[in-house]
Amino acid sequence: MFSRFFSRAGLFAAPFLALLLAGCSKADYTVRQSTLDPKGPVAQIQYDVFMDTVWLAVVLFALVGGLMVYAVIRFRSRPGDDTAPIIEEGHGNPLVEIGLITASIGALVFIAVPTLSAIWYTDDVPAESVPASKLSAWYPRLEAGKEVYAKPLEEQVLEIDVIGKQWWFRFEYPQLGLTNDAKHSVPNEMVIPRGKAVRINLRSEDVIHSFWIPKIAGKVDLMPGRKNHMWIQANEVGHYYGQCAEFCGDSHAYMLFRCEVVEPEEFAKWVQRQKSDAAPVAPNTKAEKGKELFGAKTCAMCHNISGHYGAGAFAPDLTHIASRKSLAGAWLDNRDPKAQLAKEQSTKNTEQSVEVDRATLKANLIKWIGSSGVSTGADGKPTKDVKPGNRMHYYKMFNVVSLTETHQSFTADELDCLAEYLLTLK
Question: What is the pTM of this model?
Answer without folding.
Answer: 0.83
